[in-house]
Amino acid sequence: MKITKIEALEKIANRIRMDVITEVYYAKSGHPGGSLSIADIMAVLYFNEMNINEKMPENESRDRLVLSKGHASAALYAALAEKGYFSKEELLTFRNINSNLQGHPDMTKVKGVDMTTGSLGQGLSIANGMAMASKMDSMGYRVYCILGDGELDEGQVWEAAMTSSKYKLDNLCAIVDCNGLQLTGSTDEIKGLNIEDIEQKFRSFGFNTITINGNDIFSIINAFGVADMTKDKPSVILAKTIKGKGVSFMEKDVAWHGKAPNDEEYKKAIDELIEKEKEIDKRMEGVNNG
Amino acid sequence: MDKIATRESFGRALEELGMENKKVVVLDADLYNSTKTEYFKEKYPERFINLGIAEADMIGTAAGLATCRKIPYASTFAAFATGRVYDQIRTSIAYPKLNVKICATHAGITVGEDGATHQMIEDINLMRGLPNMVVMSTSDDLETKWAVKEIAKYNGPVYLRLSRYKVPKIYDEKTKFEIGKGIQIGDGKDATIFATGITVNEALEAKRILKEKDIDVRVVDIHTIKPIDKELILKCAKETNKLISVEDHNVIGGLGTAISEVLTENYPKKLVRMGIEDTFGKSGRAEDLMKYFGIDCNSIVEEIEN
Asked: How confident is the model over B46-87, as pLDDT tens digits?
C-alpha cells in the first residue's frame, strides 16, 4: 500500500533513523552517517515509490533496489524491517556472528535485499543488468540504485553510466546521496567533486538529472515522479543530503562515517529522534484539525 | 585432421544453446569477433550486449541480469575476464553465487605473438581461490560444446577457460562427459599425465611417441579443475608409477597445485608439475612458446623418459 501523506513518510524516515542508531549501537560498529543521510530516500522508496510486496519478496515483476553504497546497510535493514520483511527484533542482531544482517547486504541471507553489495562502484552496472532484463521480458519493473557521492570516484560508475544511456534505460533511476563527505574528507577536496560537477557529468553522460533536497520527503516524491515520466533516457536524482541527518551531533561530522555511539550518545540521539517524532505528530494533528 | 580452437567451438556451441535456451544472454567487451560470440550475436541480437571496452561493467551487468533469472555468458580474453575484474567477480558473482558463466578465451602462453600482457597464466589460480566458483578448461571441440551446454544446467557461477590455439578433435559422441569428472584416456601403468585445455592434446601426442618406445602411459583430462575429481586422481596415483601434470598456466595455483592438494592429503606421492615456471610469457609463435616453456609433447616425453 502506498503512503502518500508527507508527515506519515516523515515519521517512517524518523523510525528508520532510530533503528539505524539502534542497530549500530547494539553492533558497536557500522556506518551511521551515510545511513542517516538516506533515511528519507529509503522511506519514500519503500513506502511510496517502489512497486513491491513484502509478502512476495521474490516476485519477478517487483521493482528492485541496488544499494550500491552497501555500507549504508543499517538503513536498508531498517526500511525492510519497517516494511515487514522481517521482525524489528532481528535488527538488534546486526553484524553479529549468527545474524543474517551482515555488515554489508547479502541477498542470499535477507529477503528483500535485491543485490549483494559492499565493494563500491559496482551497483550501477548491476542495476543496468536488471533494467535490461526488465526490458527484454517486457516486465515493466523499475530499478533504483543508490550511490554515494564519494563512490563516484570509482571508474566503473562511469563505465556503467555510459551503458545506462546507450541502452536508453528509462526504467532505471539512480540516486546519488550527495552528502559531500567521504571517509577522509570532503568529496570536493579529495577528487574535486561537488554537486554541480556531478550534475554536469551525469548530464553529459546522457542522464536526465534532477537535483533536490534529499532530506525533504515532498521533493523526493516529486523527483521520482519526474524520473518515472522520463522516456528514452535514464534518470539520476542528485539528492543533497546532510551526512548524519537527524542526530545533531552526528551531522556534517565525518567522524561519524563509521563509528558507533556510546551509551550516553545513544540516549542523546534517541531522545532527539523521539522529540522529532512528537513534532511530526503535532503537525499531523494540526493538519487533521485544520 | 581438422584442427579447431576451443574459442571457435565455444562460439558455435553458444549459437546452438541460444536456440535451446531463451534465458541465455551473451555479453562481450568489444571482442566478439575474437571470442567468437559473434555467431550468437548474429542469430540473437536482442539477447546480445556489447559493453565496449569496459570489463568491470560487463561483469556487473551480467550479475544484474542473473538476479533476474537470465543465464548470462560473459566473454572476453582471460587476462581481462579475471585479473582485471577480480573484485567484480568476487563481490557481485561468486559471493552471492549468481548464475553467471564467465567464458574466457585466449588463455595461456599459446595466445602467442601478443605477448605477456595478453598471455593469462594466473587465471585458474585466481578463479580457483574464489568460494562458490566452478573452474573448467576444455580440450577439444566436442568437450567444449558439452561444457557450454552443461554449465547452463548448473545454477551457479562458472569460469570456463578457452584458448586461441587450434587443437585436433579428441573425443567422439560416445564419450561420457560430466562436470567434476575427469576423462581417462588409456590405462597405461607406467605414468599418468594429467592435463587440461590445450595440453591434453600434447599429452596424447606424448603418449603415442612413448608407446613406440614401449612406455605405456595414460592421459587424464581434468576439464573441471574445481571441484576436482579426487577419486580419479587417487586411482591413477595408486595404479601408475609416475605422475605428471602439464598445463598452459603458471605452475603455482593451477592444475598441478590442485592435484598436489589431493595427493598430499590422501596419498602422498611425487608429482612433477609441468607448466610456466612462475615467470611471465613473451611474444612468439604458439608452437615455439610451448617448446620454450616446456609444455609441448616432446618436453613431456623427455620428462617421462628421465
From this structure: 999 999 999 999 999 999 999 999 999 999 999 999 999 999
Structure confidence at residue A1 (pLDDT) = 75
pLDDT of residue A290: 55
Please, what is the angle between helix A155-166 and helix B55-67, to 10°?
60
The phi, psi pair for A228, rounded to 5°, reads: -60, -35
Instruction: Tell me the whole-structure pTM to 2 decimals.
Output: 0.97
In chain A, the DSSP E strands lie at 64-67, 143-148, 172-178, 181-182, 185-186, 208-213, 235-240
Cβ atoms A20, A75 nearer than 8 A: yes
Residue pair A66/B92 in contact (Cβ under 8 Å)? The answer is no
Report the gap between the CA of B235 and the closest CA in chain A (Å): 38
Q: How far apart are CA A101 and CA A108, in angstroms?
A: 11
Relative orientation angle of helices A6-27 and A73-83, to the nearest 10 degrees:
120
Taking each helix axis as running N to C, give the angle between helix A155-166 and helix A123-136, from 0 to 180 degrees, rounded to the nearest 10.
20
For residue B205, what is its C-alpha cell? 601426442
Does A114 contact B67 at a Cβ distance shorter than 8 Å? Answer: yes
> Out of 3.40.1350.10, 3.40.50.720, 1.20.210.10, 3.40.50.970, which CATH number does the structure's domain B3-168 have?
3.40.50.970
The CA distance from B103 to B30, in Å, is: 14
Q: Where are the alpha helices (DSSP H) in B267-296?
A: 286-292
- Nearest chain A residue (CA) to B92: A116
Q: Best interface-test mutation with B: which of A71, A137, A141, A159 has the largest number of B CBs within 10 A?
A: A159
Q: Does residue A81 form part of some domain?
A: yes
B159 forms bridges with which residues in the sheet?
B102, B135
| SS3 label, residue B74 | strand
Range of the domain at A26: 6-289
